[in-house]
Specification:
about 100 residues; alpha+beta; four-stranded mixed sheet; 2 helices; 4 strands; flat
Length: about 100
């Protein structure tokens, strides 16, 4: 099994902390935008359209991750305590917490 630690060669603990902060900021921004869209979605049709857009974005991300992992012959990647695994037969991606990750 081939595993890759994403950004595992960061120089210092401070680098890792800053990357974690940047990730939190990106996640916050994404969630704030989704929340704003939900607040504006006054009808069931608008909410379903928003949900469909989110589903499509998730599928696109998973597809790109699968392509990357297959091109590098990876079965698993780790990023900030999240294991990303691929089933090479189905090309399905799964996300799991790494129980051994030190936060």
């Amino acid at each position: 099994m081939k595993t890759k630690k994403i950004l595992g060669k960061l120089a210092t603990e401070e680098d890792k902390e800053e990357l974690a902060i940047a990730t939190m900021i990106n996640n916050y921004t994404t969630m704030a935008l989704v929340k704003a869209d939900l607040e504006e979605a006054t009808s069931k049709k608008k909410m379903l359209k928003l949900q469909n857009n989110i589903d499509n974005e998730i599928l696109q991300i998973c597809s790109e991750l699968a392509q990357y992992m297959l091109s590098k012959d990876l079965e698993e990647m780790e990023y900030l305590g999240i294991l990303v695994k691929i089933d090479k037969e189905t090309k399905n991606i799964s996300f799991e917490p790494n129980p051994n990750y030190k936060y």
